[in-house]
Amino acid sequence: MGPSSCRKTSSGLPLILYYGDVFVLFGPFLPGMEQSIEQTTEILLCLSPAEVANLKEGINFVRNKSTGKDYILYKSKSHLRACKNMCKHQGGLFIKDIEDLDGRSVRCTKHNWKLDMSTMKYINPPGSFCQDELVVEKNEENGLLFLELNPPNPWDSEPRSPEDLAFGEVQITYLTHACMDLKLGDKRMVFDPWLIGPAFARGWWLLHEPPSDWLERLYQADLIYISHMHSDHLSYPTLKKVAGRRPDIPIYVGNTERPVFWNLKRSGVQLTNINIVPFGIWQQVDKNLRFMILMDGVHPEMDTCIIVEYKGHKILNTVDCTRPNGGRLPMKVDLMMSDFAGGASGFPMTFSGGKFTEEWKAQFIKTERKKLLNYKARLVKDLQPRIYCPFAGYFVESHPSDKYIKETNIKNDPNELNNLIKKNSDVLTWTPRPGATLDLGRMLKDPTDRKGIIEPPEGTKIYKDSWDFGPYLRILNAAVGDEIFRHSCWIKEYFTWAGFKDYNLVVRIRSRVDVIRHVVKHGLLWDDLYIGFQTRLQRDPDVYHHLFWNHFQIKLPLTPPNWKSFLMYCG
To answer: Which residues does the UniProt record annotate as the domain Rieske (predicted)?
Structure first.
């Protein structure tokens, strides 16, 4: 999907692109934003696949031979962490700490300061600094890139002091899953509206019953933020409803490598006011309200998070980001919300053979969910928000054909996370229910105020007990008998179009025929197959091929295969 025309206004407004009938704005650059600099990433070091293979568990000292700059990488079974080899105290060089029997810390040659590389916190002197962390990312060749975000803390530009909030001035209403309706003075902002239909083909369905007035709330929104292209955040069925009355509703997304709305034209949804904004720049809505979109450190090509600020009060929504902003986030915000549940992957439920016994899968899921719970609790403790809300995990595999997935894919309990947070910190917590409203002004003044959180009326239906499967399954089934699949050479045509090559790999994947044919016909990403639990996989040897999955989940062409030409040729 390429732009048919573009222009820059004489007033200094940002680039405007026209995608067919769709108006796309890069900006907006409003008064007070001219001094801001877009957040960028700089590659400090690139390790080849051979160098990556030689990394040992624990601490690794590495050097960029071109620049002479030194770095430290800590490798564990679960993650990689990296930083510059420079003490934050006075810039001294770190060396191996021979007194550390666990192999986690390094010692500064200047003043013997010690840094625990597994946590990026200084342990001597204790309670002093945290080390600035680099983003570690895999490249196309299975090597590693060390990336630095610049500026690292863009929210500190043009700081504002918090002003007193009147009761009712800032209200946050939970609708479903990752969808929040924010009243901010006389403006309304909505996050990630998924209110009807499935996500990931037919694999995910809403756990919660949306409030009865959800559509009217969306109609009244002044702006909508959509964090990324996954269909539990970018829900075309939901947006189609909104576009029926308000096709020009302002929608804001980050300037990701894979455009969030890459499939808009073929979705049939008529939206004419999509705004693509640069990372790390305040977007001014009115004199009191602004927001800033940040990239994810692990998936910068597709994932984003957001900071909303009203009268100096910050709301941080990290959504699904694995390492939002490379792990650097504002501390002591007024409200923080994040995902918590886990289970947003086909691994290991859709795998079988070899080690993938039911016992192994159950233990793996239990361990991974506990690790996620502890990570979120630790993150909240470190950031010290006034209030924390777990969301973006309220989905269920409700179709009867996915009974096994539903029973196996155990998710974290938000109340368990909140109890863990309260045990280790003074942070207030909020487990949201559909239609519940948090009054930020009241909660900041008196957390015990009974009107600080207004729950939905007694008798309100909280959990869905039925889903309208039919219309959505019919859309998928329409591809099953398509003429394309009468010709066996469609497989070669599809994978040639996909562009994945120069990689020696034999793939055997079983998929539900309606979903795989729908994905192939329309040139969709494989998230519908993998995250949507629509595949059954065996792998021998048991190796995760990052390049393959990353390509089919993120890097497929933006335009679908030319099946019309294919049929003419085959005919």
So the answer is: 47-145
